[in-house]
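Why do we care about 3D structure at all? Because function follows from shape, and shape follows, mostly, from sequence. That is the central idea of this module. The next example makes it concrete: a single protein chain, its amino acid sequence, and then its structure expressed as tokens.
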Amino acid sequence: MTTQTEVEHAFGMFLDQIRGGTGVEKMFEQISVFAQIFDCDSIAYGARTHVQNAQGKSASMLPKISTYPEEWQEHCLQNGYDILDPSAKPGVLQWSPLTWDDAYKDPNTADRERRIFDEAKEFGLDTGVTIPLPWPWKISPTMSFVRTGTRGLSDFAITYLHAATLLFHIKVVECLDLSADVPRLTARQKECLSWVLKGKSSWDIGIILGITSNTVDFHIKGAMKRLGAVNRMVAAKIAEQLGLIEPHWLL
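And the structure:
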């Protein structure tokens, strides 16, 4: 069994490697190596096909990478599945990691999706976790970590995989130079979202910034529209991941 010290050391090495920004494929190799400390030999990253942003542009600019078994990927192609299948499909407001066991048992999961999970087990994709990642245009890219066997991932493992995934996703966005497609926010919109990220209400933010709560709501609604977000917290999370505001832990 891997000890906490070994995990912390491996995570530190991953941080040092990914800070170099050595390209998407190389960084994918680095996070794959880190995932193996939790016996996750198969991982997948990207957004599902046929998804478009608010301006009608395809999300294909985001790479879709997978180390799922080749036999499974061929099976997906033959049956018309997305290359990211199987993976849990988080809802619009889902920001926390979602285990495959929970997704399978969810009454909202369609029979077709359960069948794909069942078929995946025949190829060694037995249990895993899917981590949703913010994106500015009403889509949710994901990263999934999968292992063979019935033993699920511990909360400890999921916490570290979640942190590694967020860092990987941020570096991917930087490497792809998506700045031309990132919505612009005004300085006041950024200020308001920064405080939203810290859990402040419109009244609180108004007191802090010296403006009325109605003015705060005006700026937040404007930011939500530009980011294609369904609520203020989603807008704040998207802005954080796009580097438009400082990450929560730095605020």
